[in-house]
Amino acid sequence: MFFWLSDFSSEIAVLNLFRYLTFRAGGAVLTAMFIVFVCAPPIIKWLKNYQNGGQPIRKDGPKSHALTKQGTPTMGGVVMLLSIGISTILWSDLTNPYIWIVLLVMFGFGFVGFVDDYLKVTKNDSGGLPGFTKFLIEIIISVLILIWIVSITTDLIPTGLALPFFKELVVDLGWFYIPFAAFVIVGSANSVNLTDGLDGLAIVPVMICAGVFLIISYLIGNIVFAEYLQVHFVRGTGELAIICATIIGSGLGFLWFNAPPAMVFMGDTGSLSMGSALGSISVITKHEIVLAITGGLFVLETISVIIQVISFKLTGKRIFRMAPLHHHFEQKGWAEPTIVIRFWIIACILAIIGLSTLKLR
Q: For a Cys staple, 16 with which of 9, 27, 213, 299, CB 3.0–4.6 Å?
C-alpha cells in the first residue's frame, strides 16, 4: 500500500523512498513488531481466559513440562499471522503475485494449525486433528499453489531444481517437480512444528531462516546482483523480502512473550504457517536445497523422530531417550535454556553455510 506513494515522488521527492525494497523491508520489520507488542497482551489474556487450562501437555513428554508449562495458552500464532498480514499489505507491492501466493500458503496452513489447536484445547487432548486429515489438507493446498507458481514462472525452467555450488545449473524435474515441491512445503511446515517444543526454540531459527531468504530473494530478484553472483534470476522475487522482513519483525515481537517462561505458545497455528511460508519462498526462489541447509536444525529434529519410530517398530528399541531431539537432551539433564541457546547457535552456523552457497560456485 505504501509502495503506491512512490507514484507521487515527482511532486514530493521524499516519497521515492517507498520505491526501495530496503527501506520498505525496514519499515515492515518495525511495523510487524509494533503490531505484536500492541495486540499480543489482550489476545494472550483472552486466550488464557478462554482456554481455561492452556495447551494440553503430552502425557508421554518430559515430566517437568507438566509443572512448568501447564496452563500456558496456545494459538499465539494468531498474533503473528495478524502482524504479518497487515504489515505485508502495508509495505509490499500488492500487484506482485508472489506476495499473494505466500500469504495464501501461510494463512491456509495457519488455518489447519488453528483447527488442530482448537481441537486440542476444547477436547483437552494433545492429539488434535487426525494426522492423515492434516497432511491431506496441507498437500491439497500445496499442490494448488504450486500449479499457480509454475504457471507464472517465466525467467527459467518452471519445473526446474536449482543446485547450489553450481553456476546457474537447473535440473528440469518435469511433472515430478510438483510432488517434490509439495514435499518441501509440507515438510518445512511440519518440521518447524516438531521443533516447537521448548520456549523460544522454534521462533529464533524461523527468524534466522527468514533473514537468509530475505537476502536471497532480494539478490535473485535483482538481475544485476544475480548476474554478479552467477545465480539464476527470477523476476519479481525481490518483493518476497518484505514478507521475510515481516516474519522477522513478528518473530521478534512474539519472542518477547515466548521467552522463558513463555506467556504463550505459538501452537500449530504459528509453527505450520511459519514453516509453510519458508517452504513456499524457497520454492519460488528455486532455493529448496538451501532451505534444507539453512533450516538444518528443523531437518535434524524431523530425522530424529523418523529414526526413533523406525527403530522402535523394527527392533523394539529407541535410539534417543525421547524424540524430537530437544527432548532427548532434556532427558539427559540439560537445562531448557541451555538446549534452546545451543540450538540457536547451530541455526546461526547453518545459516552462514546456506548463505555461502550464493558465492561458492
A: 9
